[in-house]
């Protein structure tokens, strides 16, 4: 069958994540493979049009990866009937206004998270898109990471018996920018609350969909947010005061009595298997999952250690774990979800990761910030569909 072009207005892809994961590794990779096949046998090929505020950055993308159509006029692009899809990878504080404009223009909407800076605003975006009848989705890329896919297979197979607890460690050292030879790996707005920065706002939107998907709905949260490094240096080498949290230490009550602990930090040095590691302990076995790999230890393989600090540890604890072998090839997680969304838009195929799921993430982040501020557990009530 012939190829069917699908015009996509991509706003904010001049940033690191937008360029690397969404434009290059997703949309351009899909184009290079010839598009995506829908269930009814059609081939849909995305046709990106870039929009942004900085023409020099747009020109640079055009020169390196194009040719592209690009513009700095968002309103004119939204008026183009040949661009039925709007994608947003702007900074969080700018996203809601642009998504509202896109929905008003009748566009199908796909966007990064957090979808807004407050739970009320995030839910209002969902309600707006729902009532407008447009298709909508939010990026929830970690669901397609190989390590978490393997972990989900173990859960579905009943490997753990009754799941008791989950312990997660996430983060790495983000350089402050004080020394030119060690520039920061994240943009400066991430550390300014007035610009939408906050590791709680950023990462708890991820933890919500990961926990909901793997273990059950998040029911309550206790959290301590911290700004460990009060001063950093921006992209121009100028110092600024950090007003947003750069670390968060949280407990969650999830599903049917599962206790989850996750530490998130931009101020930690990695001595673990990966940048994100989740350990799941159950009555019949345990597993440790990173971004790509997963290891298991069944009840029968569990060692019987004895506490004796007076002698060197006789048990090689790492040797008692088995790697989970993949049963399929894994593609880029962002690309996998893009393909699902394109099929959703073009052929109405299922896509449950909508703006309501995005609102749930912001809702959890807001509850965690309240828990940190008030030093108490906060219940996470369900959001109405």
Give the SSE layout.
Elements: E1 3-11, H1 16-32, E2 36-37, E3 43-51, H2 55-65, E4 69-71, H3 74-78, E5 85-88, H4 92-104, E6 108-111, H5 119-132, E7 136-138, H6 146-156, E8 163-171, H7 199-214, E9 218-226, E10 231-233, E11 239-241, E12 247-254, E13 258-265, E14 276-282, E15 285-289, E16 294-298, E17 322-323, H8 333-347, H9 355-374, E18 378-379
Parallel strand pairs: 1-3, 1-5, 3-4, 5-6, 6-7, 8-13
Antiparallel strand pairs: 2-3, 8-14, 9-12, 9-18, 10-11, 12-13, 14-15, 15-16, 16-17
What do you see in this structure?
By secondary structure, the protein is an alpha/beta fold. The protein has two domains: 3-142 and 333-354, NAD(P)-binding Rossmann-like Domain (Rossmann fold, 3-Layer(aba) Sandwich), CATH 3.40.50; 143-330 and 363-378, Dihydrodipicolinate Reductase, domain 2 (2-Layer Sandwich), CATH 3.30.360.10. The protein contains nine helices and 18 strands. It has helices at 16-32, 55-65, 74-78, 92-104, 119-132, 146-156, 199-214, 333-347, 355-374, and strands at residues 3-11, 36-37, 43-51, 69-71, 85-88, 108-111, 136-138, 163-171, 218-226, 231-233, 239-241, 247-254, 258-265, 276-282, 285-289, 294-298, 322-323, 378-379. The protein has a nine-stranded mixed beta sheet. Strands 1, 2, 3, 4, 5, 6 and 7 form a seven-stranded mixed beta sheet that branches. A two-stranded antiparallel ribbon has the order 10-11. A hairpin with a 5-residue loop joins strand 10 (231-233) and strand 11 (239-241). Helix 1 crosses helix 8 (333-347), helix 4 packs parallel to helix 5 (119-132) and helix 5 runs antiparallel to helix 9 (355-374). It is globular and about 70 Å long. It starts with a strand and ends in a 6-residue tail after the last strand. The model has no long low-confidence stretch (mean pLDDT 96).
